[in-house]
Amino acid sequence: MSKWADYLISAIRYENEMRKNAIAYLKVHQDTGDEVGAGSTWTKEEVINAMYDGKTFYTILKSNSGEWKKGSNVALVTKNGRAIITDNEYTELDYLGDLQEL
Prior knowledge:
This protein has 102 residues and is mostly beta strands. It has one domain. It has 1 helix and 8 strands, in the order βββαβββββ. The protein has one helix spanning 44-52, and strands at residues 7-14, 23-30, 40-43, 57-62, 68-73, 75-79, 82-86, 100-101. The protein is globular and about 40 Å long.
């Protein structure tokens, strides 16, 4: 495996499970280049601060064989005056594809 990013995101938890429009927590793994590190739970603010510090993030998905697959580049975007985390530049809300929920 080659290094995809500084950190990898495998799961998310929303502030409101019914509306699913704002991420509260993310499962973040360190990308060592050789393997995906053990995941830990970060707040959305911790991820945003790391991105402001120049750290890069990608989503990851587990394949049927149990191996990690590279997902999408994660971007920090300001929409309507608020910071959102997304892999889709056209959204107005936090959005990271079809990641599993924490």
